[in-house]
Amino acid sequence: MSEALLEVKQLKTYFPVGNGIFKRSNGVVKAVDGVDLTIRRGETFGLVGESGSGKSTIGRTILRLTEKTDGEVIFDGTDLYALSRRQLRSLRPRMQMVFQDPYGSLNPRIRIGDAIGEVLLDHGLASKAEVREKVLDVLRLCGLAPYHIDRFPHEFSGGQRQRIGIARAIVLNPDFLVADEPVSALDVSIQAQIINLFRDLQEQKGLTYLFISHDLSVVEHLCTTIGVLYLGSLVEVAGRDDLFARPQHPYTKALLSAVPIPDPTVKRERIVLSGDIPSPADPPPGCKFHTRCPYVTDVCREQRPVLRDLGGGHQVACHLV
Amino acid sequence: MSAPTRDKGNTVVLHVAESTAEMPAAAEPYTPPKTVTAEGVRPYPGAPAAPREPSLPRRRIANPQSPWSTAYRRLKRNKMAVFGLMFLFAMFLFSFVGPFFSPYTEGRVNVALIHKPPSASHWLGTDDLGRDVLTRLMQAGRISLLVGIVSMVLSVLVGAILGVLAGYYRGLVDHLIMRAADVLMSIPEIPILIVIGAILSDLKISSEYRIYVVMLLIGFLAWPSLARLVRSQILSLRERPFMLAAEALGLRDRRKLRHLLLNAAPTLIVVATLGVARAILSESVLSFLGLGVVPPTPSWGNMLQAANTLIDFQLRPWLWIPPGVAIFLTVIAINLVGDGLRDALDPRTNR
Amino acid sequence: MPRTIVEFVNLHTYFDTADGVVKAVNGVSFRIREGETVALVGESGCGKSVTAMSLMGLLENTTGRIVDGEIRFDGKNTVNMSRAELRRIRGKDVSMIFQEPMSSLNPVLTIGEQMAEPMIEHLHMSRKEAHAKAVELIRMVGIPRAEAIARSYPHELSGGMLQRIMIAIALCCKPKLLIADEPTTALDVTVQAQILDLLRELKRQLEMAILLITHDLGVVAEMADSVIVMYCGKVIEQAPVLSLFQHPRHPYTQGLLKARPSIGRRTERLYSIPGQVPSPIGLGNSCYFSDRCDRCMDVCLAQQPPLRAVDDRHSVACWLYEEGIRDVRSAARG
After folding, report:
1. What average pLDDT does range B121-150 have in this prediction?
2. pTM for the complete prediction?
3. Does residue B92 lie within any of the structural domains?
4. Is residue A56 part of a domain?
């Protein structure tokens, strides 16, 4: 059992909502509402959730791109929020992020070779003479051709741009990579290529991933541990096989049953949830899922369940389990 | 896939045949990709073959797809803009090179030639002091164009720097700069220029220095709107994903500013171009009122003063029509070029 | 055999761009019958949305134009219809719902007003009648508190509810055909399940045909009766849904099915179709898929394969299934 690379304790990120003339807050969006998780070295942790679940916000808060409201983020023994800006900056090479939007995450006016090279230069990891060589290396590693180095982002397809984004993130040789929906914007056949690339890179470089996605099938393929998020809280955490074989939380079950299977012969009972996802600015009291849960009871309406360990690393937050 | 089973929640659980806790055995032996060698790692399937030349690109290659090259190509296709550019080029030649071809450059006063209409020796006639109007027009062109450009450069420098500072650092800096801009913007431009122009006349600043003061003035009063524009550009660009990526990568502030400026540059260029037109017009107004560039230094604006006198207006159109037309055409040409630049630099169309 | 509502006959829709002509739809023919759900499947850029827009005549504001072919709707050719005629069938006989419900609705009008408009226009109802009908429709698509919803504005509702409203608007005049262009792509997966259920239910009630445009094979498996696979503007395979999933013939279809990660089916390494979709400009006379196909033969590089039936109602455009083609591959290519 390798040691924990990332420990997140009771993380909360709240955003004030409503701007009166004097910036009076009309309310608060509890994007991340008390999340605990631990990721061990070499692990791939999958964070699954729909819109309003806060999954992107968690990724950003963990890397301190968005400031937390409460809680702790400890990366390899260091409290990220105790660092000064300069200290944080020098730690950045070890924890990187790959973004969702392949079209927006690259500056359209900078050649990709420069975009990757400047990262090395700014962190003093290469001299001007060495930079080009290193950029060529990492491009090759990510499946791009050497002559791509002087091209501009708009000359590439979505899948290629995502490769460039990945190259940029790993050129610093990070230990930890947060992938925020990296394949959602890509076509199916390209998704497969990028997922394979993530796999390869992990093998080669010993990376630890936090893989954020709404797509359970992608998560199933890549991740060792999976956490299911609903409205800012984790409702279930389990090892991959465990989660898919024995989902405990009603939301997890509904999520699994909702994914369309490309096989017309399979007719299955689907758990169709009633209603829509509530707004994170106005979450229901008690268990946040109770408004849509087919098994709701009185205690669900009043008391918020906490994550309990069921054994074997399987945790659920539900009164009925 | 094994047969589906049902669990107590009545969900049908589909699961792969074998595995329970461990990862399923691979269908084929999985070979991890080779480490990086000179031949390269197994490229993604279907990757273009590496070029046959023995060396990989070691020097930067000029790229015809760069945003600037693309913009240039698109600008060339815009006939109106090209026409504007050609006209401006001609106007520059006319003003800066033209006088070398004129025998009348000293502007000597020649009483015998006062108010002569256009003729073979004086293509645009003479003015009230017997000076050749055509030559004066050329010399005035130098002044007006110079004032236009220098004022624009000044306002762009000041405005862009302040706008970037305001937009990037926010907080108190932003507040101070914007309030200063607000104050300046609420002062009506022409009256203030008139007042200052009058003060300058009082102070009896010599005619040469006045030009510089005029440039400074016009440039200085134009920075607020530019600063605002740049600031709003910076504010919206900051939120773009690539800026978040720059933050995540731990890039230095200077680098991040470069990212922002490169994207704000197109708008800035367009605004600067149109700013030249504004500056030329402002100078013309000032000089026309006698408060900008004053005679004997010619400027299109003060040549227009002829239109102020009834006799000149009615009987000697060659005095005021040429400068008027010059201003008019120059401003239109600048606007055409500015519009063309906007269309050429806008990444949204056709990409 | 139910009768045909729409028939696309050799449709060619091209776009003029600064870089050349994009043949977005390049010889597409298929038919949709009464009560049938036809899925038009393909990845981005394959021309599926443009096909639907050509039917609706929505190409006016773009640089697209129909250069050849016919679209027979209820016997009449829509390619030649005047704007007025097209307007009459839009919303009434053929309706369309789009991917982004938030941008498809006017933010300054209430839901009720926007629903009433097509009814007033096509069914000549009075404002009161139309409003009452709108409330009824909102209920029909499964939204509680229909009256209050009719009075609210689009930004007050969630994506799932807005899509239901879009469906309600599309169905208010009981069209014969509903075109759904990626209706659930922008929605969460649990909401997607609801919307798909709703569409199935409504289709059953109203006996209408659906042209479902999507890239998600899972959605196709759930909803479609027959499937049309498009690639680079051409139909490369066409079959009833069971036949397509059980016996996919075209290498691209096979690749798509294998590449999609799906729950319960795990492989060490995902199959991926090598390479990427070719640029739509300047496509030559070879099979468009040839540079990505692992079974590419010489003939594939020289000519385009015709769409030919290999089975009862299953057609494919691939030289592998043409009779008399020898499997010749030049040694150089390997």
Report:
1. 86
2. 0.82
3. no
4. no
